[in-house]
Amino acid sequence: MDLLDVMLKRRSVRRYTDEEIPEEKLNKILQAGMLAPTSRNRKPCSFLLINDKDSLVELANSKEHGAELLKGAKQAIAVIANPNVSDTWIEDSSIALAFMHLMAAEQDVGSCWVQMHLRKSKDGQWSEELAREILGLDDYFRIVGILALGMADGQPKPHSLDEIDLNDVHILH
After folding, report:
1. Would the keyword Oxidoreductase turn up in this protein's UniProt record (predicted)?
2. How confident is the model at residue 155 (pLDDT cuts 50, 70, 90)?
């Protein structure tokens, strides 16, 4: 499968089976995140593999909308960034999440990016602060997002190149 095929196949999967994610697939997803480029190669990101079901349920409740799928995820990967290492921690974390999302698709593992940065819980608390508490992280760490993982309960249809709006491409002469 070439990269464009993987990009077309990549979908946000929110329902998962009880099937375990094979360790070799999980390792490739983590490797993809660690291979992601960072500004000036500073590498401010660390990757926390979350296997604990109670933590996944707590994280699912840390946002008002869009995190419920973590309850059904088999595992998740939080991308944790140290802003003292690089001021581009948001971009670096986002690239790592995107790389892992693509690798999950290539490995036939369902995944969905759960945004934490600049989101709030139902009671108005910052989701990122709640996630740090749940995960036992120091206050200076930042979390752009968490990648939910599981074997997909039904695979959404891949995207098509016909969906691309070429009007979004502008050429500067």
Report:
1. yes
2. confident
